[in-house]
Amino acid sequence: MEYADPATLAFLASRRSHPPKLLTGPPPSREALMELLELAARVPDHGKLEPWRFAVLERGTLDRLAPVLAQHVLARGGDEAAAEKARSGFGSPVIVAVVSAPVESPKVPEWEQFLSAGAVCLELVNAALAAGYGAAWLTGPAAEPDFAGAHLGIGPGERIAGLVHIGRRGPAPPDRPRPDIAARTTFL
User: Is residue 185 part of a domain?
Assistant: First the structure.
């Protein structure tokens, strides 16, 4: 192997998401966040279509939408506990909605473009973690098409690939059990 980056491999071996309820403020500055978004955009993108975009939900927007999201959950038949969980999910210092925005292409199917948006989500989490922030990739009721369309500016043909919560790290979360890779791998 001509090139190896042991520090990156060590980071990937130890990376873990930080639950949004453990994130505190202040959020990254807009300048720092733009740097993270630049890194997040360095993903596989067959055809160079850029089939995704970002919608940054800052504190004022999160405060305004938290009760609206709780009402949305109740209106869809959720109970008070589910509504409170949704409302408290908007307690993160900043949330970046990664929006899958597929582009008409005769060569690149929409499902592949959606995977590119998913790769942006993971790359954004990893960039935030590597920069010293806590981060997590979630979805939930705010990503539902009717809520996202009405309140997050999601247009026809678009959908939320992920809501990436970013803030200052709280206590380190415990590692979770990892999959048995040998049991999930077939060599052909």
Answer: no
Residues of the domain holding 99: 19-57+94-169
Is 153 domain-assigned?
yes
Residue 142 to residues 52, 57, 83, 159, 174, Cα–Cα distance (Å): 18, 12, 11, 11, 27
**Rounded to whole angstroms, how far apart are CA atoms 59 and 13?**
32
The kind and range of the H/E element at 159 are strand 159-167
In a domain, 99, yes or no: yes
Taking each helix axis from N to C end, the angle separating 110-130 and 6-14, rounded to the nearest 10 degrees, works out to 100
Percent of the chain at pLDDT > 70 equals 99
- d(C-alpha 73, C-alpha 142), whole Å: 9
* pLDDT of 83 over the 70 cut: yes
Residue 63 counted as domain residue: no
CATH of residue 164's domain is 3.40.109.10
The count of domains in the chain is: 1
| 122-156: pLDDT as tens digits | 999 999 999 999 999 999 999 999 999 999 999 99
Distance from C-alpha of 16 to C-alpha of 125, rounded to nearest angstrom: 9
What's the rounded Cα separation, in Å, for the pair 176 and 19? Answer: 12
Q: Does the model's pTM come out above 0.70?
A: yes
Q: To 5 degrees, how large is the angle CA 49–CA 12–CA 91?
A: 75
The type of residue at 93 is P
